[in-house]
Amino acid sequence: MTVIPARAPAPTISASAGGARARGTWWIYLLLILGILLMVGPFLWMLLGSLKTQAEFLASPPTFLPNAASTDNYERLFTQLDFPRFFFNSSLVAVIVTVGNVLFCPMLGFALAKLQWRGKRLIMGLVLATLMVPAGITLIPNFVLMANLGLVNTFPGLILPFLVLPFGVFLTRQFMYGIPDELLEAARIDGANEWRIFWQVVIPLSVPVLATLGILTFLGSWNSFIYPLVMAQEPEMYTLPVALATFATGDHQSDHGMLMAGSVVLVVPVLIVFILFQRWITEGIATTGLKG
Amino acid sequence: MTAPALVRRDVAGRVAPVAPRHGWRQDLIGWSFAAPFVLLFGIFMALPILAALALSFTSFGLRDLENPIGTSVVGVQNYVDVFADPKFWKSLGNTVYFVLVGVPLTLVLGLVIANALSRGITRFRTAFRVGYYLPVVTSIVAIAVVWRFLLNPDVGLINVLLQNVGVSGPNWLADPTLAMPSIIAMAAWRNLGFAMVVFVAGMQAIPVMLYEAAAIDGAGRWQSFRYVTLPMLRPTILFMLVITTIGYLQLFEEPFVMTDGGPLDATLSVTMYMYQQGFEFFHQGYASAIAYVLFVIVAVVAFLQFRFLRTDDAPMEAMR
């Protein structure tokens, strides 16, 4: 018996496409490649720009490739501005938020999918209802709350509201719902309690969904903006997006080279994570259709 | 999504074929799993949603931060003011413009690319999928900074290219009629990959025999897209419509970084106006009212579209 009940493997497009259709499709490849150039172009422009000096930006006519690649922008980023600090802040927040979600969301997901308890439907309804709530709603009350707890400009202030997100419950609950009850029942007959079943049966089976959840949560936290913008008011607590936006709209707004270098620092770690784990990300999204 | 033969009835324990246990012990076990989430969720999500509603009926400002309970209640005055505030209507108009143009543009581009990947080609699918998805995972702030530079009138790539063919490009983000279209183009560029991935998944669930039958009937590429793919994909398209609309209604980062809402408030969005009122002018009661108006708009749009979806939709199945 298979662990996860698979849908009937109906023949799909990918299974049968080929041969007859392969001819006469060169123009589709061509258009798709042109499209890819449009998608990748801005990233290349960012990378090239980060290697140009300010003098080169002012020169006429403007250049595509840097005349002489310079790491000056990066050096200024890491010496004049406190980018190592911002990088650390973003990393710490993202890691703790990810751990919180990967730990607590599956617990509730399991209780909603596999256990019977009073209050379950209420909690389920609340979680689903808040999936669609605009982030702006909780911004001001959370700011007031943090201000009164003295947590503005602190890591707990940046982390606590994101330690558990409804999306993680939704995702894990859907997955665990598909785990056959027989497996859990067998463990119960063997004398395992629910906690043991959770850790030793359900969690090992849920590794793929936990990977998806972990990666998506990390990316979401790394890229999040409006909340840290409000909560990190002192530069030493800035996350990377807050720092970049602050410099881009403030004193450094025409320092193109340094802004491009800052964008590279913000984007490249995420691109590495994405390219390494792209299968989990795109498949996780395809199955839930949620979260960007 | 669900496997009806295997799952017990979700409604109440007594229908379950397996272990119909009920009682305080089961409740205790269930809540012990739920407790950490419910505690944090209650404090930082559920409570603030209610608190925002309460705040929207007060004149809460900077001076009340030390003593939130001492703020003065003004009833529905904030809402009266919001609906009489031309700047709010301007921001709402801009947001609706962004949604009405941006959502169809994003979804059509995503659909066209998904169709090309699923039906048009057989090789390099993963590479294309990764390429088109790339911007989705990156920070909107970084993308907005890069695009502001791309659109720079003097040294930006777009105008440099235009100059090479003898056209003098406009100052995109400083022109009130071009600023919002520029932001829409950027948003569509960033988000089409997300729509593409969801559409590709939807297309993979369409039985191939439908296409074979269409081909026997003499359908070409366009006709099989029009008469097989589109109708079969309808639930997925509607689902993406809801998700993208909800996301786009919350436009914030792009105008914040690229235009600061300008020129002449041409790109001021509702969320940005809320941010300005709450954290630049410190009218947090008023900002909460703006947030709640947006909340209601999002909820109504979502509700209408959810109702529309309910009967025959596969992705929504997962929501129940």
Question: What does the model show?
Answer:
The complex is a heterodimer of chains A (292) and B (320). By secondary structure, chain A is mostly helical. Chain A has 15 helices and no strands. Mean pLDDT of chain A is 85; it is low at 1-22. Chain B is built from 13 helices and no strands. At the A-B interface, α1, α2, α5, α6 and α7 of A face α1, α3, α4, α5 and α6 of B.
What would a concise description of this structure say?
Chain A has helices at 13-16, 26-50, 54-58, 72-79, 83-114, 120-130, 135-149, 155-159, 166-177, 181-189, 194-205, 207-223, 226-231, 240-249, 256-288. Chain A is mainly alpha-helical. Chain B is built from 13 helices and no strands.
Give the helices and strands, then pairings:
The complex is a heterodimer of chains A (292) and B (320).
Chain A: H1 13-16, H2 26-50, H3 54-58, H4 72-79, H5 83-114, H6 120-130, H7 135-149, H8 155-159, H9 166-177, H10 181-189, H11 194-205, H12 207-223, H13 226-231, H14 240-249, H15 256-288
Helix pairs in contact in A: 2-15, 4-15, 5-9, 5-12, 9-12, 10-11, 12-15, 14-15
Chain B: H1 24-55, H2 77-83, H3 86-120, H4 125-137, H5 140-150, H6 157-164, H7 179-204, H8 208-216, H9 221-249, H10 253-258, H11 270-280, H12 284-309, H13 314-317
Descriptive labels:
heterodimer; A: 292 residues; mainly alpha; 15 helices; 70% helix; globular; disordered N terminus; B: 320 residues; 13 helices; disordered C terminus
Percentage of β-strand residues of chain B: under 5%
Radius of gyration from the alpha-carbon trace of chain A, in angstroms: 24 Å
Mean pLDDT of chain A: 85
Unreliable spans of chain A are 1-22
Main β sheet profile of chain B = none
Alpha-beta content class of chain A? mainly alpha
- The helicity of chain A comes to 55-70%
